[in-house]
Amino acid sequence: MKGIKVVGGVPLNGEVKIQGSKNAALPLMAAALLNKGTTILYDCPQIADVFVMEEILRLLGAKTVWNNHTLEINTEFIDKTQVDEEQGRKMRSSIILLGSLLGRFQEGAVPHPGGCVIGKRPIDLHLKALREMGAEISEIQGEIFAKTRGLRGSRIHFPFVSVGATQNAVLASVLAKGDTILEGCSREPEVCTLCRFLKKAGAKIEGIGTSRLMVTGVEKLHDVVFQVPKDRIAAGTYLCASAITRGQCVLLDAPVEEMEAVLLAYKKMGGQYTCNSGKLTLCSFHADKPLDNLQTQVYPGFPTDLQSVFMAALTVARGESRITENIFEDRFKTVPQLQAMGARIEMEGNTARILPGELTGTEVIASELRGGAALLVAGLAAKGETYVKNCSYIERGYEDICRDLCMLGAQIYRD
Ligand code: EPZ
């Protein structure tokens, strides 16, 4: 069981390069399926979820080659349309392969992603959109089988925002016959990045960045070279590491244009920052103020993926904070672990009340990706040593969190 030891009480001071974005890279790899040819992704993060997606593509018949952080995917000889069950179950985002498989091959099968520790995470919106575009979908023993005589352009309205369902519908629409109007779309940066990638590959998409996307189906896409954007969640994680230790850090290439709500929260905590020529300089000497009403929202609101790490930082603020989780129904699994470190957190439905307190190092267990990162952030400010178990969860989304936090001066050691 991989673990990480953190020695607390060291104000971070240093600079770190921000990795490529996990949540941008995965849909781009799924989109590569739509082009019978070669896709090259620069600055692709070398993380577990990307390796799983790579293995899924290889098992379908794609060829992949890494050259440092450049990933080349050749899908010319793909001869399968059923996603490997073992690999597909490792990662929920395998569901968006359905849109690409239907678009290119008019059929596809993926394992039902099931729920996970942060919530049930149903896929009803994904399947509704694909059916409206002409897919026949059946679920047999935990597998989802889809086929179509040809996807057709449709008008689809999402009753509420879903990043993945928006991405799945966009992937299915780019090669469909006719025009597709998608309303109620997610405006997350990772949706915009996918649309920009597809346009660069020859797709016709208008309305990028808005909740209404208009796609005109094309015959085929062509080879594309694309730069994976930087990871706003990794940057927000390291911002909290700076805040909780009252340190002074520089995040190189942080995607500040996608971090408005995060930087606003940091500023309300008393953090000070400047950003120029790709350097986000954080001064957290006074970042000890509570946040009386932090609400997670869809983009451009405060991201749910940073809820846990901000909670960790607020456990040592000088006053009472409240965080409300509005996106997932069960994303407070890390609270008991933070309480084991001495955090004073009281739950009131989907709101966590965080009272001022101190943290003491102890052994804690990660149960999911962002909660695991939050435990490491808490360990940075705890008295003594904290040992975080099950760190393989963290490796799903962070290329090397120990390397990065060491660059910022943390005393942190992997087993
Ligand atoms: C993406 O997940 C991200 N994952 C998540 O990041 C992120 O937390 C989430 O968006 C919200 O921003 C990737 O991009 C790979 P949703 P996704 O569909 O697309 C409900 C991380 O830590 N819903 O926007 O699965 C769902 O249950 C991960 O990097 C339905 O009810 O999220 C949730 O409550 C965690 N039916 C809400 O919508 C559906 O068909 C938002 O989910 C789909 C979703």
Summary?
By secondary structure, the chain is α+β, with helices and mostly antiparallel strands. It has helices spanning 22-32, 48-60, 85-89, 97-105, 124-132, 163-173, 189-200, 232-245, 260-268, 307-314, 335-340, 369-381, 392-395, 401-407, and strands spanning 3-7, 13-17, 38-42, 63-67, 70-74, 107-111, 136-140, 143-147, 155-157, 179-183, 204-206, 212-216, 224-227, 248-252, 272-276, 279-283, 294-295, 321-324, 344-348, 351-355, 363-365, 385-389, 411-414. The chain has a 4-stranded mixed β-sheet with strand order 21-22-1-23. A 4-stranded mixed β-sheet has the order 2-14-16-15.
Description:
By secondary structure, the chain is an alpha+beta fold. It has 2 domains: 3-19 and 230-414, Alpha-beta prism (UDP-n-acetylglucosamine1-carboxyvinyl-transferase, Chain), CATH 3.65.10.10; 22-227, UDP-n-acetylglucosamine1-carboxyvinyl-transferase, Chain (Alpha-beta prism). It contains 14 helices and 23 strands. It has helices at residues 22-32, 48-60, 85-89, 97-105, 124-132, 163-173, 189-200, 232-245, 260-268, 307-314, 335-340, 369-381, 392-395, 401-407, and strands at 3-7, 13-17, 38-42, 63-67, 70-74, 107-111, 136-140, 143-147, 155-157, 179-183, 204-206, 212-216, 224-227, 248-252, 272-276, 279-283, 294-295, 321-324, 344-348, 351-355, 363-365, 385-389, 411-414. The chain has a 4-stranded mixed beta sheet. A 4-stranded mixed beta sheet has the order 2-14-16-15. Helix 4 (97-105) packs parallel to helix 6 (163-173), helix 8 (232-245) runs parallel beside helix 12 (369-381) and helix 10 (307-314) packs parallel to helix 12. It starts with a strand and ends with a strand. The mean pLDDT is 97. Ligand EPZ binds at residues 22-23, 26, 92-93, 119, 121-126, 162-165, 188, 190, 304-305, 327-328, 369-370, 397. Ligand EPZ binds next to helix 1, helix 5, helix 6 and helix 12.
